[in-house]
Amino acid sequence: MSADVSLGFERNHPLVEPVETPRDVSPGLDKLDQRDGGEPQVGSLGLDKLDQRGGGEPQVGSLGLDKLDQRKGLDQRKRADAARRAAAAQARAFAEADERALDGLVSVRPRSAVPRPQPVWDDAEVLVHEPVGERYRRLVLACDTIARTAQAGQFLMITVPPSGGDTILLPRPMAIHRRRPATPARPATAHGPATAATPGTVELIYGTVGRGTRALAAVPVGGNLQLTGPLGRGFEFPAATRTALLIGRGVGVCGVMGAAEDAAAAGIRTTMVLSGRNPQQLLGRTDCAELGVTVLEATDHDGSSDLAALKTRLLTEFDGTTPGRTPPDVVMVCGAGVLARLAAELGADWGVTVQASLEAHMACGLGYCHGCAAPVSTDPSVEGPLVCADGPVFDAVLPVV
Ligand SMILES: Cc1cc2nc3c(=O)[nH]c(=O)nc-3n(C[C@H](O)[C@H](O)[C@H](O)COP(=O)(O)OP(=O)(O)OC[C@H]3O[C@@H](n4cnc5c(N)ncnc54)[C@H](O)[C@@H]3O)c2cc1C
Ligand code: FES
Predict the structure, then answer these.
(1) Could you give the dihedral angle defined by the CA atoms of residues 313, 357, 23 and 294, in that order, rounded to the nearest 10 degrees?
(2) Residues 6+ apart with CB under 8 A from 174
(3) Which residues contact 103 (CB under 8 A, 6 or more apart)?
(4) Which element (helix H / strand E) includes 73?
(5) Could you tell me if residue 220 is inside a domain?
(6) What is the pLDDT of residues 272-324, one digit of tens each?
(7) What is the spatial distance between Cα 101 and Cα 124, in angstroms, rounded to a whole number?
């Protein structure tokens, strides 16, 4: 069931993923992973060594078993506290790095000639809800209207039903990872077991990071979710684009996958960087194979996500020495501020347009609450752009120094 949602305005203007755990490589990238909720890697904090140093074998006789148990409990609590503190400090460091990376970088994209679709409210049936790898979950929702109208890079606001006595008041924003509209040949009403490829659906992929996403994970197949969308200003290929480079980090891959769908439909030769903590957690390989997109994997595990290493690799990949290595006509990025800056540096080298999808905490997603200010400096007397209504996709150009 769908109903129009009036935005009540049309603004003139038009995402980077969160945190992981302490890492030795590519520090700026793990901000994405915070959001993805990785457990702190206690071993990497050196706490195991601390325990070894503190102790040798416990002297059971002299301490007594009760005392030994107490000490064990205390040690565990201390370790957990230290890990929490380290993870929080790392999260702050990554947030600051991302904020610095976006400083002066993004601006609202010029008004598009293509009108934005009218958002709808939809009570969508959950057709598939399953784990994807170690960290994520896939949701396939029956909502053909949104599948038909959503533009690449747009998002939905999902109202999460109460779970275990917890009421989630505000809806949560999620990127539309895949759009699979029904066609006359493949109607939405087709029977048979639902799969990710069922027509008349959209696919989302999310990490469980807090109350909202934990409650979302409890929604059963056959249940319903209230959606509002499609929302925001998405990615748009400049006229005459022949080649494109897409960059996604963690669930930020979902932010750019719609652009890969559009590129495939338009015959645009596309390469996508899939970045993540380790190869097991990379999203999007199957989608890219289906869409004919060339994949470059970049992980913290082997250091290939390190920003300098990635930049060198991409400059080499697109060094113009053969027709197949011509620099792309456009770069589109989602998942980390530091990656948006890297994309802007590449765009400056190649003289091409860069579009970056940003993320913000959102209460309404509709431009009403004014709580998602974009990091764009404006005249202080004028309200600045909003990520939900003027983005999430912005132009990214290196500031002139
Ligand atoms: C346009 C847009 C598209 C998004 N697409 C996806 C997606 O495809 N898949 C996905 O897993 N997530 C996506 N997100 C992020 C997702 O909305 C949040 O992870 C989710 O709202 C967290 O809700 P929660 O109640 O579980 O977490 P909370 O309890 O609210 O927070 C848990 C932790 O996550 C952080 N966090 C929460 N929301 C955000 C946010 N918006 N940005 C950065 N950090 C956040 C908090 O600071 C906190 O550290 C998107 C966000 C936006 C704005
Ligand atoms: S989330 Fe309410 S204005 Fe952007």
Answers:
(1) -40
(2) 155, 156, 158, 204, 206, 254
(3) 375, 399
(4) helix 65-102
(5) yes
(6) 999 999 999 999 999 999 999 999 999 999 999 999 999 999 999 999 999 88
(7) 38
∠ Cα 92 96 102 (to 5°): 145
Pocket of ligand 2 contains residue 386 by CB under 6 Å: yes
Q: DSSP letters of 339-381?
A: HHHHHHHHHHHHT-EEEEE-----SSSSSSS---B-S----TT
Alpha carbon distance 298, 234 (integer Å):
24
Pocket test for ligand 2, best of 174, 359, 388, 390 (most atoms within 8 A of CB): 388
Pocket test for ligand 1, best of 92, 159, 213 (most atoms within 8 A of CB): 213
**Ligand 1, atom 39, residue with closest C-alpha:** 361
| Mutation pick for ligand 2 pocket among 368, 376, 383 (CB with most ligand atoms within 8 Å) | 368
Alpha helices for 189-246 (secondary structure H): 211-217
- Return the amino acid letter for 308: A
Query: What pLDDT, in 10s, does the model give residues 162-202?
Result: 888 889 999 999 999 999 999 988 888 766 677 778 889 99
Q: Identify the CA nearest to 272 among candidates 301, 300, 243.
A: 243
pTM of full prediction above 0.90? no
Q: Which of 244, 233, 248, 236 is nearest to 339 (CA)?
A: 248
Q: Which two tokens stand for residue 281?
A: 């957690």
CATH code, 127? 2.40.30.10
Residue 356 within any structural domain of the chain: no
What's at 369, amino acid-wise?
Answer: C
Contact 126, 221 (CB under 8 A): yes
Q: Is 392 in the pocket of ligand 1 (CB under 6 A)?
A: yes
- Residue 96 maps to a domain: no
- Binding site membership of 398 for ligand 2 (Cβ less than 6 Å): no
| Residue 278 located in a structural domain | no
Number of residues written out for the chain: 401
Q: Provide the number of structural domains found in the chain.
A: 1
- Note down the domain range covering 181: 2-12+114-231
């909502």: which residue's tokens? 143
